[in-house]
């Protein structure tokens, strides 16, 4: 009986594969053979393009689906090697929903890929008293998918001393930083930094292990030229960066918060409660919420004692809410220091609690609708509190007004920043240096010398001033509790250099 059934399957498959159809009359090769002639696809099936560009020789997963349901089918991944010829190099199986995934696919160059599903015979449920029958699903190939492969690359950037992560306050460094970045990232790969000596020869200077974000950040003496090379690692070839010269930058502004009282260059930046667009119905800046001591500026939020016992009503997406009136921290150099283009940095340890957001930003007094060159708010960093570790609510943004006076925001929360901290570190256990290089052509945002955002739109050419803040907006008030209201953000220093 089994022998007869096997013979029937073979005959049906043979008929399906050899009968002339609109699909093809070309020959096909046996499973595992090195190549086969190209055949037009039949049925509905597709490969899904990867969400990000594929890196050379770095494994990735490639998924797809077919219209055949409730049947598990073999799928071969094929690469086009020349006109009309395809090579099979890995195989998987569809699930009962018709989905499939090829795991750990690696490409050395840009390639055209397709999935091929050989003809498949499956039993058809027998009706009462009827004969046993088989259904043959014809061969199917997906539409060809072009996979672009980016070659390995490395970049070296030089900047002032914007790399100083650590748990305690420290005096600002006066050296320079060169930041090497490699793509694809290879955590644990050795990166050799070389310096160009007086004889014009490259000599070893230092080495570090590449971190999870693909960076190796070096503190170096200025007035020297450097290059970096990522060493061969787990099948990846070595990659060399460009050369970059570390040059000492002149300081335009510095506050280390070492004085016993607040530097008079900082003034309370007070906006009335309910100021249009502020979303701060219940909170107002007040000097009671910031102080200096032990070399740091401390900023927080607190209850407004002058309105104790009174309820503040505010609107949210969930409707009208009520809560206590609050004080917050917001300091600015509006009257004392402004600059146009430069590198601004602050060493900050954030409050962990939700219910407030702290930030370091560069503001302008009046934004001209439709002309961001006349003033764009530059948020070097904003942190909105720990939310249980699911996603870091830390970001950098640019704000200006369009010609119709509607607000425009560029930037976002940058989840990539999580990989730029040492393993196990947090934004509230350690100080980190957040910086933005504001140039005539672009903004470059970094944390501890790691670049995470570069933007060439909305470039302001107007003198602007610094702001440090710990604010609570209407949408955050529900998270302010007596247990967390006393948490503070600490600022170790603020500096601004020339470009």
**Helix- and strand-based class?**
mainly beta
**How many strands in all?**
40
What is the beta-strand fraction?
35-45%
Number of helices: 1
Describe the global form. Answer: globular
Provide mean pLDDT, rounded: 89
The biggest beta sheet reads: 9 strands, mixed
**Low-pLDDT residue intervals, each spanning 5 or more residues:** 1-42
What is the first-to-last residue Cα distance?
Answer: 85 Å
Helix content: under 10%
Rounded to the nearest angstrom, the radius of gyration is 31 Å
Characterise this structure.
By secondary structure, the chain is mainly beta. The protein contains one helix and 40 strands. The strands form nine sheets. Strands 23, 24, 27, 30, 32, 33, 34, 35 and 39 form a nine-stranded mixed β-sheet that branches. Strands 22, 25, 26, 31, 36, 37, 38 and 40 form an eight-stranded antiparallel β-sheet that branches. The longest helix has 17 residues, at 2-18.
Provide a brief overview of the structure:
By secondary structure, the protein is mainly beta. 3% of the residues lie in helices and 44% in strands.
Spell out the blueprint of helices and strands.
Elements: H1 2-18, E1 36-37, E2 45-47, E3 54-55, E4 60-66, E5 74-82, E6 85-93, E7 99-105, E8 111-117, E9 120-124, E10 133-137, E11 140-141, E12 145-147, E13 149-150, E14 153-159, E15 176-183, E16 190-196, E17 202-209, E18 215-220, E19 224-230, E20 239-240, E21 244-246, E22 251-255, E23 267-268, E24 283-285, E25 290-293, E26 296-299, E27 302-303, E28 311-316, E29 319-324, E30 326-332, E31 342-349, E32 357-363, E33 377-383, E34 394-401, E35 407-413, E36 432-438, E37 443-447, E38 450-455, E39 465-471, E40 489-497
Parallel strand pairs: 3-13, 24-30
Antiparallel strand pairs: 1-6, 2-4, 4-7, 5-6, 5-8, 8-11, 8-12, 9-10, 14-15, 15-18, 16-17, 16-19, 19-20, 19-21, 22-40, 23-30, 25-26, 26-40, 27-30, 28-29, 30-39, 31-36, 31-40, 32-33, 32-39, 33-34, 34-35, 36-37, 37-38
């Amino acid at each position: 009986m089994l022998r007869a059934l096997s013979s029937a399957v073979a005959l049906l498959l043979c008929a399906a594969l050899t009968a002339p159809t609109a699909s093809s009359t070309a020959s096909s090769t046996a499973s595992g053979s090195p190549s086969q002639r190209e055949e037009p696809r039949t049925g509905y099936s597709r490969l899904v393009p990867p969400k990000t560009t594929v890196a050379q020789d770095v494994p990735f997963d490639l998924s797809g689906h077919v219209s055949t349901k409730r049947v598990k089918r073999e799928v071969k991944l094929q690469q086009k090697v020349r006109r009309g010829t395809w090579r099979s190099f890995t195989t998987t199986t569809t699930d009962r929903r018709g989905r499939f995934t090829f795991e750990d696919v690696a490409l050395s160059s840009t390639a055209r890929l397709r999935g091929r599903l050989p003809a498949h015979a499956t039993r058809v449920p027998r009706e009462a008293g009827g004969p046993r029958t088989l259904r043959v699903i014809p061969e199917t190939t997906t539409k060809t998918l072009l996979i672009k492969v980016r070659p390995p690359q490395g970049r070296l950037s030089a900047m002032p001393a914007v790399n100083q992560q650590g748990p305690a306050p420290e005096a600002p460094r006066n050296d320079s930083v060169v930041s090497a970045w490699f793509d694809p990232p290879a955590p644990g790969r050795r990166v050799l930094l070389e310096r160009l000596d007086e004889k014009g020869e490259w000599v070893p200077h230092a080495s570090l292990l590449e971190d999870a974000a693909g960076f190796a950040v070096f503190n170096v003496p200025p007035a020297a030229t450097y290059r970096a090379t990522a060493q061969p690692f787990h099948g990846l070839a070595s990659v060399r960066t460009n050369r970059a010269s570390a040059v000492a930058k002149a300081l335009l502004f510095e506050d280390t918060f070492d004085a016993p009282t607040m530097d008079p260059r900082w003034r309370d930046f007070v906006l009335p409660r309910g100021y249009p667009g502020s979303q701060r119905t219940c909170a107002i800046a007040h000097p009671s919420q910031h102080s200096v001591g032990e070399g740091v500026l401390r900023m927080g939020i607190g209850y407004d004692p002058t309105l104790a016992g009174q309820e503040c009503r505010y609107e949210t997406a969930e409707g009208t809410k009520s809560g206590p009136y609050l004080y917050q921290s917001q300091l600015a150099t509006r009257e004392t220091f402004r600059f146009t283009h430069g590198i601004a940095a602050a060493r900050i340890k954030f409050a962990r609690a939700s219910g407030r957001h702290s930030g370091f930003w560069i503001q302008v007094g009046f934004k001209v609708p439709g002309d961001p060159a006349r003033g764009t708010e530059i948020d070097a960093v904003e942190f909105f509190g720990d939310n249980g570790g699911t996603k870091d609510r830390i970001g950098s943004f640019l704000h200006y007004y369009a010609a119709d006076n509607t607000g425009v925001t560029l930037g976002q929360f940058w989840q990539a920043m999580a990989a730029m901290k040492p393993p196990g570190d947090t934004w509230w256990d350690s100080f980190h240096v957040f910086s933005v290089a504001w140039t005539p052509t672009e903004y470059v945002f970094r944390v501890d010398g790691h670049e995470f955002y570069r933007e060439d739109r909305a470039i302001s050419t107007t003198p602007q001033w610094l702001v440090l803040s710990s604010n609570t907006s209407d949408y955050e008030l529900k998270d302010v509790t007596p247990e967390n209201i006393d948490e503070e953000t600490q600022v170790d220093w603020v500096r601004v250099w020339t470009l």
